[in-house]
Amino acid sequence: MVSSPSTSAPTESPITAGQHAPRRTHRRALAALVVTVTAAFACWIALGVTFYVNPATEAVPSSADVIYVIGPPTEERIALAQKLRGDGVARDILISVPKTGEQSADNLDICQGDHVSCLHPEPFTTAGEIRLLNSLYGADATAVVITFTPHISRTRYIAEDCSPMDVTVIAAPSRLSPIAWAYQFAYQTGGFAKAFAQSCR
Question: Is residue 181, in this structure, part of any structural domain at all?
């Protein structure tokens, strides 16, 4: 009796099996990377909402030595400064202005008013603005600094880091588009990184 050839199922050769292992490892590494990046992005968004969209608020003191509008000196910030002065918070208004352009001292009517100083800090940054404030008022002075909502947390951090003064940071009304908010998330995060790297302490 002649036996028929056996027809066993084909087996994967060692070479083929070895070729699949790196592919599986690569897919797992890629999946882990995607999860890590997604989690990091989600954390960044959550922190951004906390610090940029809904920053901690401070009560405006009943009196201060100066009301300080930091750049850019928008109409909303200047209007809030004038309101606070009208409420008796402080007589002096200090405004950080660029050297040239529509918002320079030569082109802002308020800069011609009594007890208003419009000065250009060097450098024209938040840290430079706080240094300008320090140069004009003593360590025991109090200031109300006006900016806008996304900038509050970073301004407060730099003021606490670089000024011995008692500084209250508040926001003037502002409306930002989704694109502008996205830009502020990136810009303020970069600003925080710079402030950490160039600490005054």
Answer: yes
